[in-house]
Inverse folding.
């Protein structure tokens, strides 16, 4: 069993604590947070784990094999770096770091120390996204044409990052996983309504070349919660609705077939295709539990991380470019 510690017990940390403590592949040995009250509250539910408020004690503990970092984005680099230098494997909450230089340094240190660096892009481990990946890689959708993603709700406002840095990593990691190549350019627009200068509504548009476009809408102000992820292909399209309890994935054999006019009259021949809608069966497993088991496989068996440091760097690169575009009123930024 991989002996694990969790640093950070705010919003996401307790979920990591629960999964690391109940998985048969890992053993929770320490929990840590700068707030003693949080440590006591979480520790009361997991009495076998040592408690503390100093992350340095966690990194110095020889009984800790791996550390999960679930703290504010601005602290990811320092904590993950210290853990890696102490010889620990590291699982980091998304995004990997607050800027590209920090993310690249973490990847370099992990490689030098031969430690696992995994980013908590948790949706990649959901049965729904695994099914999307299977469909894309089997060619069931044909060539990808577009991705439209909506992730909006009356959300938890962050004080250190804007809505793009908070929510978009989920969608960007899924797109990165499915498309398999980086975007060529992007543009982003957004607005801040809370008076703190941090965008709480944003639209991000990415160009992947070869006619593939992706759009990501994130929003903390919406009175309704939506989690829609639509992929359009030349053969079929797929809708992933994370809030649908019974049919999270629907495959549509519907679309438009385009062909050039054989007589060369500068017009396009359009035919509409209306076939079946299929909702494939999905496994009933918790994404975070799947991530924890995969992390254990990477540590113990040398499995290649699905959401490793390389993907973490790619996502931070996009977020940093999106921030540049936001600051310049939506100007296109080449990647």
């Amino acid at each position: 069993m991989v002996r694990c510690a969790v640093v950070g017990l705010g919003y996401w940390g307790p979920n990591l604590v629960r999964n690391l403590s109940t998985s048969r592949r890992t053993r929770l040995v320490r929990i840590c947070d700068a707030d003693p009250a949080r440590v006591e509250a979480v520790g009361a539910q997991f009495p076998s784990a040592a408690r503390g408020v100093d992350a340095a004690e966690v990194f110095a503990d020889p009984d800790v094999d791996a550390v999960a970092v679930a703290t504010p984005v601005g602290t990811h680099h320092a904590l993950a770096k210290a853990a890696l230098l102490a010889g620990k494997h590291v699982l980091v909450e998304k995004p990997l770091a607050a800027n590209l230089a920090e993310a690249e340094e973490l990847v370099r240190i992990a490689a030098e120390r031969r430690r696992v660096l995994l980013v908590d892009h948790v949706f990649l481990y959901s049965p729904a996204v695994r099914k999307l990946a299977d469909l894309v890689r089997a060619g069931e959708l044909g060539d990808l044409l577009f991705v439209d993603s909506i992730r909006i709700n009356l959300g938890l406002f962050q004080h250190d990052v804007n809505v793009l840095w908070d929510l978009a990593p989920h969608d960007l990691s899924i797109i990165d996983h499915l498309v398999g190549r980086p975007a060529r350019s992007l543009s982003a627009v957004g607005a801040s309504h809370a008076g703190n200068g941090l965008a709480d509504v944003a639209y991000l548009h990415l160009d992947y070349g070869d006619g593939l476009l992706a759009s990501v809408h994130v929003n903390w102000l919406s009175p309704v919660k939506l989690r829609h992820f639509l992929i359009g292909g030349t053969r079929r399209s797929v809708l992933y609705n994370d809030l649908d309890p019974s049919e999270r994935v629907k495959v549509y054999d519907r679309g438009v077939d385009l062909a050039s006019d054989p007589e060369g009259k500068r017009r396009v021949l359009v035919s509409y295709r209306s076939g079946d809608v299929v909702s494939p069966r999905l496994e009933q497993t918790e994404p975070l539990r799947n991530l924890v088991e995969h992390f254990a496989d990477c540590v113990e068996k040398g499995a290649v991380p699905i959401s490793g440091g390389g993907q973490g760097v790619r996502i931070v690169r996009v977020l940093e470019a999106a921030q540049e575009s936001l600051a310049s009123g939506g100007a296109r930024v080449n990647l």
Notes: The chain has two domains: 2-115, 124-286+317-334. DSSP finds nine helices and 15 strands in the chain.
